[in-house]
Automatic annotation (TrEMBL):
Pfam families cross-referenced by the UniProt entry: HxlR
Domain HTH hxlR-type: 38-136
Record protein name field: DNA-binding HxlR family transcriptional regulator
Key words of the record: DNA-binding, Hydrolase, Transcription, Transcription regulation
InterPro entries, per the entry: HTH_HxlR, WH-like_DNA-bd_sf, WH_DNA-bd_sf
Stretches for region Disordered: 1-23
Organism domain of life: Bacteria
GO MF entries: DNA binding; hydrolase activity
Organism: Promicromonospora iranensis
Listed Gene3D superfamilies: Winged helix-like DNA-binding domain superfamily/Winged helix DNA-binding domain (1.10.10.10)
Statement: the UniProt record of this protein carries the keyword Transcription regulation: yes
């Protein structure tokens, strides 16, 4: 069950939801990323993989066709990008739209959940990018200190 399926089920089970009034109350869904069998953990594992994170960051800039996305995410193979996009689609973060043109084309975009995840990943990427020069300076200082000590 994907995260969006769980959210829909939780809304239907909630008071005032769209479940029938005489239906038995559903057991409350509790998401816990630390629990081995929780689907939020599976989605977390997908999102935190290198290629999925980079694909989400790229799609945060706007929709992409497959090959354009592959060019944007340098180094990813066609097979790995395809598997990554399938996993992100399964977890409700990416949509895949087949545009019926000649030749047909496929476009990928973020869902609202994917947008939220991409925004948070963008913040992390911005933090890392802003501090890469500081990390390089620190590394250079350490190297210079080691050279001076010898």
């Amino acid at each position: 069950m994907s995260i969006t399926d769980q959210e829909s089920a939780a809304r239907e089970a909630a008071p005032g939801g769209s479940a029938t009034p005489d239906a038995a109350p559903a057991q409350e869904l509790v998401a816990d990323v630390f629990a081995r069998d929780c689907s939020s953990r599976a989605a977390f594992e997908v999102v935190t993989s290198k290629w999925a994170s980079l694909a989400l960051l790229a799609l945060g800039e706007g929709g992409y066709r497959f090959n354009a996305l592959r060019r944007r995410v340098e180094g990813v193979s066609e097979k790995m990008l395809s598997q990554t996009l399938q996993a992100l689609e399964r977890d409700g973060m990416v949509t895949r739209e087949v545009v019926t043109t000649i030749p047909p084309r496929v476009e990928y975009a973020l869902t609202p959940l994917g947008e939220g995840v991409a925004e948070r990943l963008r913040s992390l990427a911005d933090l890392l990018e802003a501090n890469v020069t500081e990390a390089a300076r620190e590394s250079a200082r350490e190297s210079a200190g080691e050279s001076a000590a010898t």
